[in-house]
Structure formats: C-alpha cells, structure tokens
Design brief:
heterodimer, A: 252 residues, alpha/beta, Rossmann fold, 4-stranded antiparallel beta sheet, 10 strands, globular, B: mainly alpha, 14 helices, 74% helix, 1% strand
C-alpha cells in the first residue's frame, strides 16, 4: 500500500473529458516521473491530488485517508506540498517572508522557525536574495522559491510541476542534484517534467498520460521504449519508421 | 534607523493631534473629529481592501449598524451608553464575520458589487425594523464637549493604525498579503484562507462600528440615510488609495489630505468640494496609482518590506 492511492480518477471541464479512469499508487520514498505531451492532463492531475480542484469521479487517499473532498490547505497541512507550473508566489512579501509563512503554518515558531528558513534558503541557494521583494525575482528564482516554500511544509509527498523549465544546463544539473538529495531524505516525489534528461536521472518509475488516459507505467528505460509512449509523443508514423531511427530522442 | 524615525514621526503627529483642542477653536476641533473618524474608517477599510485585496464597497454598513444599534439600545432599551456601544460593536463584528463567510467567496468586481448590495440591504432592514427606529431617526442625549468626541475619534483612529501596524509585522498580516498576492498558493501552503479573510473583514467591521457609536453620540441625532450614506464607503476607499493602500500611515494621510482639501474648497462654495474630490481622485489614479506612500517604495533589491514598515511602503 502506497502513501498516495489514486483510484479511478476522472475530471471533466464542462463537456471536455480531461482525465479518465486514472489509477496508481506511490510507494513511500520513491520518485515517480509524470510525463505526457502538452494537454495530456498532467497539471490537472496534480491540481486534483493537491485539492486545488475537485475530481468529477474517483477517489484519492493520502496515508489511507480520503483527501478528494478536503480543502487544499488541509491537504497541505497533512504533508502534501506542491509547486505550480506557472509560478505562484506572494509578490508583496520578501523571499524570506514567503518561505517563513509556509513554515509558520505548520506550527514552527521563534528561533526554530528562523533556523528552518535559513536552512531552506541555503538549500535552494537563495540566501543572498532573502530580503528581495518577490515581484523583483527572475523566473528561475521564482521556481526555486516555490520549491523552498513547498519544502517548508516538511512534506511527506512533494508534487513538482515543471520546476526545471527555463533553467540553463548548469542550473539544471544543480537542480537534479538537489532533487536527488531530497530523495535521499526520504521525501516521496511526483515530478512532472518535459526534460527527459531529468526524468531518466531521478525517477524510479515513470507514468505516462496521453489525452487524459494513463497509457504506460513502469521503469524509466522500459517506458520510453514502449511503442504507445513513442506514438503519443512522436506520432504513429515515427514508430512505423522506427527501425531506421534511433528511438525516442533527447528532450522530448 | 528608519524604524526609529518612523516611530518619532508618528509620535510627533500624535502630539500635534493631541494639542488641537486646547490650542485651537471649536471649528478646527469639529473638522479634526471628522478627519479622525475617517482615518479610523479608512484604516478599517484598509484591512480588507488594502491588505487582503478585497475591495469592499459596503463598509458603511458597519458604521451605520454600529451607530443605529448603539442608539437603539441606549434610547429604546435604556442601556448605559458605554454598554450599548460595546454591544453594538460586538454585534457588528459578528455580523461582519458571518456575512464575510459567503461574501468572501466572491472575488474582484463580484465581491465589490455584493458588498454594495450588503450595505443597501442592511439599510433596508434597519429602516424597517421598529426597534432600530423604523427609519424615523433617533435623538440621543446631548453630552460631552467637542473635545471629548475629538479625543474619542482620535483614540479609534490610533487604534486602527496600531492594529494595522501590528498586523503588518505579524505572520497574520503576511497571511493577508499572501491572500492578496495569490489565494490559490496561500491555500497550497496550508493557510485557511476563509478564516483569515473573514476575520480581517470582521476586524474591519469592528473599527467601522466603533466610529459609528461615537458618531451617534457626537451628532446626537442619527437616521438611517445619513449613517448608511454610500459616499462614506467611497471616501474610505479613496482616502486609503490616495494615502497608500496596505500601509499603516496611508489611510491617515488620505483622511487628513481629503479633509483639508474639502474644507478649503468649501470656503469657495459648497459645490467646489465635490469638484476638488473628483479632481483629486483622477489625479491619484493617473499619477499615483499606488498612493502617495506607495509611490515612495524603493525599487529592485530594496530592503525587506517588514524592516521599516511603519510603513512608508506596502
């Protein structure tokens, strides 16, 4: 039994079926990559798990507790933290205040609170910008801040929605190293990412969504070689001609 | 230290304000009482409109309800005025809290329209309630001197600024600012946004009601159309915006500036004051969209917001 159980999850936006019959479970301490072409429903799935949106069908259990009807702030306090694909930061607060507020909501106070904020600033290499108002941050810094803010909740499960997008190669390697360190700390992660380099590097397992359906689930190397995955990304013509090609290339 | 300078400035302003009744005439005290009243009201509006980012167009409901409840409890139920006032403030706070729960689910223009309707609906209910005078108005005993009401209003204005100051320097204040920035993200870090918003609305209501109960006794005659006058909300909003929304000193500065401008215009003619107010609003929107104090906010790499936030910055 995993720490997160998703059972028969479905979501409609009006007449549009965005997710259909999604079921999977996440084992504690594992890193799962969630991939799929644009519009596959990845962010919607994260929104449903985190409680930012309600599922039309199905159930979600976090540590065996049903969370599909809980407000997102309650889910966050249970230890399920997330980042947003399009960054959502508190622009009127400084970077430090952003992180401190999150650590404060889980009950840290006084010197323990400040020490935890310092640790997270250090971990995400944001210490020198701690006093900067967030409306002045660059996009990569905003992404790092979102990660630090999510970690401030001392999560047991972390949902990362494209935290690497827009990073340069050096920053990317650093970010991968950071996620690997978090994995060693035992934080379970569900990582949405378009960069296959990241997915192959950090995932124990990969789940593939396509047009709202879960089409593959397995080891990273095995999943990228599945013909239905290659079809979803590259079209059926590519798969037909695969014999002459080299398979699913680099950054999809 | 900037913080020390801000504190000295605040103490200086307070000292001048305290000296007005013994050193000036009744006319100035009268004008000062009104300014202090609006500073308190604008300060209350700032909690929900400035800090939390929910522009209420119905805050006059709290002012009016506070005044009418205190009046009715004192005149019709013969309660001592201090007890009637306390009950009115408490009752209005609960009223704001309960109405905040559904109203604050709305956002932006929807919230503003709904609060506008709230004020009108409250007026209608008060006008049709026998206990509250049934629209006939109420005469309260004439007590005190102009100076007493001036100091009472000043005390509420100071309380209003003090509450804002303490909020801005607390995690609760940061919670409200976080909600203003991004409510979805605020929820995602475990903030109970419904509770935070509703309590800010209730606090805003309490300050409005406090000004209302003093106003009732000060004027010694109140009727619903006067204490529920929509322009009172507009003034709270304009003063806060002009001074600097989300700051401690902004509402005070706005109330004093608009108060002075209105008085100067009245010297020319009664209608000139509306003209001055209108031109003032246009000037703020065009040249100082963040208000006078918001305008002084430093740019990139500035110091952390909380450090000197007496605050000259939002």
């Amino acid at each position: 039994m995993g720490i997160l159980e998703v059972k028969g999850l479905g979501k409609d936006f009006g007449g549009l079926r965005v997710l259909e019959n999604i079921s999977f479970s996440l084992a504690e301490g594992t890193v799962t990559g969630l991939i799929g072409p644009n519009g596959a429903g990845k962010s919607t799935l994260v929104n449903l798990i985190a409680g930012s949106d309600r599922p039309t069908r199905g159930e979600i259990y976090f540590f065996s507790r049903p969370v599909h009807n809980l407000a997102s702030w309650r889910i966050a306090r249970l230890g399920l933290a997330r980042t947003f694909q399009i960054t959502r930061i508190f622009r009127d607060l400084t970077l430090r205040e952003n992180i401190r507020l999150a650590a404060w909501t889980i009950g840290l106070r006084g010197s323990r609170l400040e020490a935890e904020v310092d640790r997270l600033l250090d971990l995400t290499e944001l210490s020198d910008k701690a006093g900067v108002l967030c409306s002045d941050l660059t996009l990569p810094d905003q992404k790092r801040l979102q990660l630090a803010r999510a970690l401030a909740l001392q999560p047991k499960l972390l949902l990362l929605d494209e935290v690497m997008a827009g990073l340069n190669p050096v920053e990317l390697d650093k970010a991968i190293a950071l996620l690997n360190r978090l994995r060693l700390q035992g934080i379970t992660m569900l990582v949405i990412e378009h960069l296959m380099k990241v997915i192959m590097n950090i995932s124990d397992r990969v789940i593939v969504l396509h047009q709202g359906q879960l089409i593959a689930d397995g080891q990273p190397t095995e999943v990228v070689n599945m013909s239905q995955v290659q079809e979803a990304y590259l079209g059926s013509r590519y798969v037909k001609h695969k014999a002459e090609g080299t398979g699913l290339g680099g950054d999809a | 230290m900037k913080k020390k300078r801000d504190m000295l400035l605040a103490a200086g302003i307070l000292l001048i304000a305290l000296g007005i009744p013994p050193l000036t005439n009744d006319y100035i005290v009268q004008v000062g009482t009104e300014m202090a009243m609006y500073a308190a009201l604008a300060g209350g509006w700032n909690l929900i409109g400035g800090l939390t980012g929910y522009p209420s167009f119905g805050n006059v409901a709290f002012f009016g309800l506070g005044a009418m409840l205190a009046g009715a409890l004192s005149v019709n139920s013969h309660w001592p005025y201090w007890l009637a006032a306390a009950a009115a403030v408490l009752g209005t706070g609960i009223f704001a809290l309960l109405l905040g729960l559904p109203l604050l689910r709305l956002k932006g223009h929807y919230f503003s329209i709904a609060t506008l309707a709230l004020a009108q609906a409250t007026l209608a209910v008060v006008t049709n309630t026998k206990f509250l005078g049934a629209g006939m108005g109420m005469s309260l005993p004439i007590v005190g001197s102009p100076a007493v009401f001036y100091y009472a209003m000043l005390a509420i204005a100071v309380l209003s600024a003090l509450i804002t100051y303490l909020l801005i320097h607390s995690e609760y204040g940061n919670t409200l600012l976080a909600i203003k920035s991004d409510e979805v993200a605020a929820q995602a870090i475990g903030i109970n946004t419904v509770l935070a918003k509703s309590s800010a609305f209730a606090l805003s209501g309490v300050l409005g009601a406090m000004a209302g109960v003093v106003y009732a006794l000060w004027q010694s005659y109140i009727d619903p159309p006067t204490v529920f006058e929509p322009s009172i909300t507009v003034l709270m909003l304009v003063m806060t915006m002009m001074g600097g929304a989300g700051t401690v000193a902004g509402p005070v500065l706005g109330a004093v500036l608009i108060g002075i401008l209105t008085q100067l215009a009245m010297e020319v003619s009664q209608n000139a004051s509306s003209l001055v107010l209108g031109l003032g609003i246009i000037a703020v929107v065009l040249f100082l969209p963040k208000g006078i104090l918001g305008f002084r906010r430093p740019g990139k790499g500035g110091k952390r917001r909380g450090q000197s936030n007496f605050p000259l910055r939002g």
